[in-house]
Amino acid sequence: MKVVVTGANGKVGRAAVEALLNAGHDVTGVDLARPVFERAVEGAARYQMADLTDAGEAFAVIRGADAVVHTAAIPDPTANPAHVVFRTNLMATFNVLEAAVRFGVPRFVNISSETVPGFLFAERGFLPEYAPVDEDHPAHPQDPYALTKLFGEQLMDAAVARSDIRCISLRPSWVQNEDNYEQNLGPLVRDAALSSGNLWSYTDAYDLANAIVLAAESEPARPRGVLYRRAGHCRRSRLRRAAARALWGHDPAAAPLPPGCLRHLERQGEAPARLGSEAVLAGLPRRRRHGAGALVTRVRNTEELG
To answer: 27, 35, 106, 247: which has the fewest C-beta neighbours closer than 10 Å?
Structure first.
């Protein structure tokens, strides 16, 4: 499968490219960094430089794709002027999705954010209407970053309503990898050890990448609600059954999983634990708890709209 990954040089994008290549897909990474005009490293993904806020460039890189994974974005509202964050993130999402619709790309994986409910960067703080916060909680974003992520999810819904594309939006919490675990989470863990302070919810970039592969490979036959990603350990058979029920509505004992999904689930089941915790993909009922590594997945496909 030909997969285009936008934001390929970011934390999520790099992990997604690696995971998709390992899954046997033909991957093209897209970002703003200039390409290197040297012989490509064997096995590496192709790379194209593109400013996705320009519709022409977005259309140029999406043409011919079988799936799009959209991770490109300014990742928070604090280091750029508000109008730059809003314009960049929203127009990039619109242009890439519009290109996917017009070229008939069947699958679109959109990386949204836990900030959509509005708490994280609020200028005028407020409390949630209930706890734990889940995907049904009303969205009240105030900052330009969270607003663009909410509008991005709405763009996905609109695309599904007007075309045959199927869209999955993932809302990961604070994404970490080996480069920044100590810097970002170390002080929080040490402070918590000395007091009853709170630990931030976070998602490991490689665990998120595994969920992205599954989303890109999946072909839901009908709406199956939401998926959660949670910390813990799980036997491979349970993992396969949960993912099969959530995405395909069947138990693998009754019917085999698609080969790509099966390979992915087997790899994940055999993967070594990261920092003492292995994130597990499981199909769970709605309104489950969120904890460290929590990830909400909104599934949108054509059957949901009639």
So the answer is: 35
Per residue in 252-263, pLDDT tens? 444 444 444 444
**CB crowding 279-300: b at 16 or more within 10 Å, else e:** bbbbbbeeeeebebbbbbbbbb
The candidate with the shortest Cα–Cα distance to 102, out of 49, 70, 62, 50, is: 62
3-state secondary structure of 166: strand
- Does residue 132 have a cis peptide bond before it, meaning omega lies within 30 degrees of 0? yes
Q: What is the pTM of this model?
A: 0.74
Cα 211 from Cα 185, distance rounded (Å): 22
Sheet hosting strand 226-231, strand order edge to edge: 46-49, 26-31, 2-6, 67-70, 107-111, 166-172, 295-300, 226-231, 279-282
For domain 2-305, which CATH number applies: 3.40.50.720, 3.40.50.10320, 3.30.70.20, 3.40.50.360?
Answer: 3.40.50.720
- Give strand pairing partners of 30: 6, 48
Calpha distance 192→183 (Å, rounded)? 15
Which of 16-30, 179-193, 238-252 comes out lowest in average pLDDT? 238-252
Model pLDDT, residue 272: 29
Q: pLDDT tens across 263-296, in order?
A: 444 444 433 222 222 232 333 233 222 333 334 4
